[in-house]
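cron nightly-structures :: item 1 of 1
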Amino acid sequence: MTESFIHYLWQFQQFKTSLLLTTKDEPLKVLKTGMLNTDAGPDFLQARVLIGEIEWAGNVEMHLRASDWNIHQHQSDKAYNNVILHVVWESDKPILRADGSEIPTLELKTITDSALLDRYQLLLSNKSVIPCAGQFAGVSDLAKITTFDKALTRRLMQKAKGIEELLDQNHGDWEETTYQLLAKNFGFKLNSEAFLRLAQNLPLKVLRKHRDNLLQIEAMLFGQAGFLVEVDEYSEKLTREFDFFAAKFSLKEQQLQAHEWKLLRTRPANFPTIRIAQLAKLITSQQSFFSLFTQTGSVDELRKALQVEQSAYWQDHYHFSKKAARRNNGLGKGSVDILLINTVIPLLACYAQKTDNQAYMDRAVAFLESFPAESNHIIDMWKQLGQSITTAFDAQAGIELYNHFCTQKRCLQCHVGIEILKR
């Protein structure tokens, strides 16, 4: 038994009788279940119930056992003074408010359909990573659409929250935050944290002063990343430039080390050296990343802006001491789309929240619907279950649903799981 199952029973009033009684045998009629509270405080807020002939308005708290109320110290927490009903699986003792009055209690163990409990336990005990895999095909399209929409909304909100934290660290500077977010995503997961540290240790406001000189931008980025080695004329030029700027801006105090970068099992085209060279070129080609990402209304325009080609040296090298066997092309369409999905979409979601402007959120969703779906093992699992995954909207929702709901067996927070239980 879990509290989430009790939440489900209460929210959807899944009882085998409509004649509810409190543990004091008082008639109970639920007029309004209230809103599920995901923050601190009682579980359901603004509920309304009729106990006997008296109508109560307030909050509802839920526990596995009534005595959990005291274990959780609710009796001394003012946030629980307005609890009008205690809903429990098992009522093992009367519970009193701070003023000494007893809280009406509804026990669910005796009014829960055993078949419903069996279906819930069957979902929880399923060994498949997607607990409802065997029943997914029979679920209505409406439940699937609602579930995927909910999962995508959660994913956007979580990503927006991460950007807001970065924005706070940058004291509200959107431009610096956008640059750091873009740099992080140039790491393409494997080197994302190293790229983020590089951007944080080498502010955009420093680079901007020299954005008309690609060699100097490369010198600062490669030097601060810890990659510089003098092996040819090009690397010697970069070293001289970096030494100058390092002294001017005190860069070496926060310089990364080469061992912090991951190259094992990485294709040369994805080497951090190549990505740094591409980022350097992008910095010289754009006046403002923030304006580009928030004011451009076309995906094709954004793709065109990011499809840069690195400097000539990095077209036939993948390290300072190693020449490439074949030409290194610039950022391809697939890489650009990943950058846009992971940078522009969450940035627009965060900006929509901060400015209370739904238009930016609508644009983020529209962009997602115009990108093709990525291909990975999670997407493949959904496709095997018959779920249509054609756009980045579908893919992002599927990834969030799998990671946050399916693997954690949060079936009671999923419309698919709820429909299965209601059968």
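cron nightly-structures :: done
The longest helix spans residues 141-169.
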